[in-house]
């Protein structure tokens, strides 16, 4: 089984990616699970609605989104509505029988909601910094996957197309991390190969130099990558560690912007972690 | 098998309806298919985005929505995103294992796109009227249901929660009529009972007089109801004719705003058509 995860960046080429997946799917018997983000569409919709996405920085320096009640609704419209159905439509156009699912459908992705977020707020004028507690956040972490639902769809010949939001045990929608979710889905579904695409050729030692691509990383070396990992790459490194620790054999990081992005990643044109 | 269809009006009580469905579902072995609209949420989102829903009147006097490229995206966000996941979340909270699906998922609802819409435009100043052809509309009519996808979900213990958009054979999203879709799903799935809820006690002879409720209507009498049927009730009458002509035995129209709305409709508190 193959899991393919793609971010929600602005330059995502829906057509090239779905064509490549159609080729892989139609030329092998391998079952595929597809996980996608939609952050660019979410941010655009939030801005268009005059409620721009709020970001906070944790005391450890990690940037994350503060998802309040309005934000979880906007997220749901962009992720489970616009972008999930856009992916499904491209797959259908390429003769892949895709079924879109959010984490709430059939309690596919169940997690715990955070009671509080801690935001480190800088006062640049005074040169001081203080911690602010944020309650009532619709954010959390997934710890349970409904493998039964995925299996009946896969066995029926349907490719699950999975996205946010996830859900708490008692039915509250929460924003969670797609890289960690992908790692958990992969381990629960006994996925052996995982392809993760983003808008870079792979792991770069220097983010401004495409020639600094690192071809291979072992599990042991992964933590050493954290200092090079800028922005959301940090979460991809953590997701890869999770996935490898829970049974995934190989992870392929590759460029989402090129032709045949998945085939190229699988052929080792990006970064292979094993 | 029971099919429950509910409109997308502003006063929809998600909690009362999902509680009632949970009671029915947990106290019988009857399989349930749920179909819903989201027109109020769609119109609100369209207004909030500064792109209000465009309505046209056909030469025969039927009002319908003109769905252009922006409108089909807004519809997808409101129907398949916000409201579909809101329903699923209420069902999950009431221990019903619900899975949200749009018509595009697994090509659940395949239809033909209209080549052209005809709009009858009144010039009130001059007292004249002319026909305007509208091309490039994302509107159509469903003629095919993927019963295989519904059956594997139902057999797996999941309640399908179905909404717009539908899809053409070649993967283009289209806006279609939920009443006609419900009738087609019911006939293809061999549904015997169909409950249709809306914001009125049932079929009223006089829309302003709740005491003018018509308790029973036969198939033969249905066309006589068209003159009483105001606005979207016309489409419900046409949907009921379709459903009865294709094997559904009984249709129950009931009030979506009361407690236990489905149980009450099934008990004959609204209008029964058979």
Q: Could you walk me through the main structural features you see in this protein, from its secondary elements to its overall organization?
A:
The longest helix of chain A is centred in the first third of the chain and has 25 residues, at 69-93. In chain A, a hairpin with a 5-residue loop joins strand 3 and strand 4. Chain A is an alpha/beta fold. In chain A, the strands form 4 sheets. In chain A, strands 5-10-2-1-13-15-16-14 form an 8-stranded mixed β-sheet, with helices on both faces. The radius of gyration of chain A is 18 Å and the shape is globular. The first copy, chain A, has 8 helices and 16 strands. Chain A has one domain (2-51, 76-108, 141-273): Carbamate kinase, CATH 3.40.1160. In chain A, helix 1 (14-26) crosses helix 3 (69-93). The A-B interface holds A 45, 48-49, 73, 76-82, 84-85, 88-90, 92-93, 97-102, 104-107, 148-149, 152-153, 156, 158, 165, 167, 170-173 and B 45, 48-49, 73, 76-82, 84-85, 88-90, 92-93, 97-102, 104-107, 148-149, 152-153, 156, 158, 165, 167, 170-173.
List keywords for this structure.
homodimer, 274 residues, alpha/beta, Carbamate kinase, eight-stranded mixed β-sheet, globular
